Amino acid sequence: MASTLIAIVAGVGPGTGASVARKFAAAYPVVLLARKPENYENLAKEINQSGGKAIGISTDISDSASVKNAIDVIKKEFGSDVGAAAAIFNASGGFLRTPFLGLPEDVFKTSIAVSATGGFIFSQATLPLLLKGVELKSAHPPSLIFTGATASVKANAQMASFATGKWALRALSQSLAKEFGPQGVHVSHAIIDGVIDIPRTKEWLKDAGPDAKLSADGIANDYWNLHTQPRTNFTWEIDLRPAVEKW
Amino acid sequence: MASTLIAIVAGVGPGTGASVARKFAAAYPVVLLARKPENYENLAKEINQSGGKAIGISTDISDSASVKNAIDVIKKEFGSDVGAAAAIFNASGGFLRTPFLGLPEDVFKTSIAVSATGGFIFSQATLPLLLKGVELKSAHPPSLIFTGATASVKANAQMASFATGKWALRALSQSLAKEFGPQGVHVSHAIIDGVIDIPRTKEWLKDAGPDAKLSADGIANDYWNLHTQPRTNFTWEIDLRPAVEKW
Amino acid sequence: MASTLIAIVAGVGPGTGASVARKFAAAYPVVLLARKPENYENLAKEINQSGGKAIGISTDISDSASVKNAIDVIKKEFGSDVGAAAAIFNASGGFLRTPFLGLPEDVFKTSIAVSATGGFIFSQATLPLLLKGVELKSAHPPSLIFTGATASVKANAQMASFATGKWALRALSQSLAKEFGPQGVHVSHAIIDGVIDIPRTKEWLKDAGPDAKLSADGIANDYWNLHTQPRTNFTWEIDLRPAVEKW
Amino acid sequence: MASTLIAIVAGVGPGTGASVARKFAAAYPVVLLARKPENYENLAKEINQSGGKAIGISTDISDSASVKNAIDVIKKEFGSDVGAAAAIFNASGGFLRTPFLGLPEDVFKTSIAVSATGGFIFSQATLPLLLKGVELKSAHPPSLIFTGATASVKANAQMASFATGKWALRALSQSLAKEFGPQGVHVSHAIIDGVIDIPRTKEWLKDAGPDAKLSADGIANDYWNLHTQPRTNFTWEIDLRPAVEKW
């Protein structure tokens, strides 16, 4: 039996994660990772009902035992010789804009645990599957894509928690891009510089016009474009922002 | 009569320029600018014969009178209410790796004349057409794309000439992205970090494997992907390099 | 009785930390923090015997209880109204150049614990003393200085552990510079881009000439120069490397 | 007769240039370059009357013949075996905040002529003297220092003219730092990120408090600190801004 190529999305919620999952589900079975099942259950159902294939696995991305368990579930489901065509790290945490001296230690540690340690654990767990994807000659180079933010490149006042984790994640992605590019895995980092248009942000930026927020489907499309770049033309980093954004 | 939307490519040669022209010619009449007619004549013929529409105009991009003349020719050909869907600046000059104290003044000035002044003149000439494209509600946001290089972000020893011009061009593109994004024009900058696979580089990197050089058609594809991003999701900058490239 | 102004150095060892402590000891009583007493005992003795004043406190910089204890010891020694003229974060950990798939989780976590969490804990503990230094009108603006590395701005292949922590620390320092600059505290980050000349590196770069390694005393001098900048002229970041270094 | 070591300052005016000249005049005879004699005459007189030595030479920094003439005057004055301990490029031009489509071509070209071409010409003319300074074993490594601005690292909307020149100059300085560091010349770039307190800016930022503007003497002091760094500890780049500056 032929080996399967899957896509794995960590940090599935109502925004980028869901759009990315839908986009990649058109080409690959997708695995949805989130801590809370309510974050992936409906999405998995939707994908499965519309002709795709999706499974959700409750996973704490900052806990290597939990991620190891997810990989075990994946191998049970798709075979022990499963390869990955894409792994997308979309998790984040520890966002709090606050004067530094009032920043709770646990918020700071959450940012680090998700963005830095979580990125590390996710990468160590998925890279063997991505390298397997290279071996299986996936149609497009297996891709490891990290979702960044404005705070990945600018550490503003009162943003020490989120920025610290996001800079760490960007460093991780750059190091991996340099190490695994020559091995055929395409590692990318996307700087999402603006507000994403999701239910939670419905009331934000209402006066800034209809195009003031990033489209999550648009982000998913850009991730797909990164994924389909050939080995000769890898992009490590893109930035994405609404046309009207000040930067 | 309906207004026409065109694509303008400056710096047409056997590599990126030609690939970009072919790619955009599938959607728009294209205008090919180069100093020497032999750089665009065959390409224009090829595009016209395969069902597209192309005209070439001999233009010195660093000379505002020459570029003004090109705009006049464009308006005569496509109507005075012509708009641009895309303008791509792919010109460069003054490349010379040499100890600084032996760098001829005219080489340095050529780099500056093409990359800095040329970028400025091309942008001032095409932005009114791109803004006209916004007005004409082009299917994709009118795009002004600049071709950069490794030397756009790293100024290595003995590379003062080329790097100086390329950093200047990157600054120009960033300032324009911030000013014209809110007006609906998508300004991008692409860092081409590696050798492009063209006839002139045929013998280069032969030992580095079949994927060691950038594909010009791949670059054209990435430019097209930039062009088709919606107003909600503009990328200012991408980097592009072969998977095996050290960076 | 007048309040005292002290300097606190975290991460005292045989290199930068000791040189910085000696330099600042010429102006202020210094507090030396390191996990192992053998890292500060001789240095404290040396400073005390040569007319300065130094105390060492065994401290785990990544543990907020341990750092809180250090602050208690400081207040007991110098008075509860003690202010800080300088706090220098020179700790680091988790350095390991290794293929990513063989990088032990605990090494990665050490890098993060020291550089990210440690930087956070040290800053939350010392900033109140530095703000007290502003209030006490210290002769030079109270300074919080972070020691970075090449890996703070470049995440090379096989360097994911160290680079991730160092990028995080740089983000922290930038956010703090923006928040606390207007409050009178000078926050800086120094990119040490090269090998420091200490006993442990005696055999390194022997063929590269006498000036191929950074002088720790030179670094201390640069930190002092940062410290003595007036409020009108704050530097956030400097890079430091031997003249012969390739970069 | 012993060879002389001088300092050369290009772009002498009432601000940074004058402060730098005074600072370096305490250690070296200084050569003041500016287009208009009224920009250096009083300063030269002041330095000569207070025990230093200064000569002014009317020079168009963007014109290689004019700069060659300045070098001839220098050699006539100080001997053909004169060396330079420092060369400081403080010239700038083409500052105009304006919508891009209204930016006059001559303003853009002035920015480029001064910052890019002027930087090139000044460097080619002074580096032989700086290398001579290395040979003469100057007390501090001969230094070539470039004055940058906020616009050297950020190209804001409507700032295309100034930013383009300043990015070009930064590229030049980086390339020269990499090439001439190993030869013993210390090349630096200073990002002056704020308003400098000079007669022309007297009325600016009056509500922002007494420390809202950079001190020109402070900048001169920082340049001197760069100059006195030993070969083991070279800084390429520093940023400088008032404590209260938003960035």
Task: Please tell me the CATH architecture of chain A by its name.
Answer: 3-Layer(aba) Sandwich
What overall geometry of chain A do the principal axes of the alpha carbons give?
A: globular
Helix and strand element order of chain A: EHEHEHEHEHEHE
Number of helical segments with 4 or more residues of chain A? 6
Pfam family, one (chains A, B, C, D): adh_short
Protein name (chains A, B, C, D): NAD(P)-binding protein
InterPro entries (chains A, B, C, D): NAD(P)-bd_dom_sf, SDR_fam
Organism (chains A, B, C, D): Clohesyomyces aquaticus
Describe the structure.
Four copies of one chain form a homotetramer. By secondary structure, chain A is of the alpha/beta class. Chain A has one domain (5-240): 3-Layer(aba) Sandwich (Rossmann fold), CATH 3.40.50.720. Helices cover 40% and strands 17% of the residues of chain A. The first copy, chain A, has six helices and seven strands. Chain A has helices at 16-25, 41-49, 64-78, 105-135, 160-180, 216-227, and strands spanning 5-10, 30-34, 54-58, 83-89, 143-149, 186-192, 237-240. A seven-stranded parallel β-sheet of chain A has the order 3-2-1-4-5-6-7, sandwiched between helices. In chain A, α4 links the parallel β4 and β5. Chain A is globular. The B-D interface holds B 64, 99-101, 103, 105, 108-109, 112, 116-117, 120-121, 123-124, 127-128, 151, 154-160, 163-176, 178-180 and D 64, 99-101, 103, 105, 108-109, 112, 116-117, 120-121, 123-124, 127-128, 151, 154-160, 163-176, 178-180.
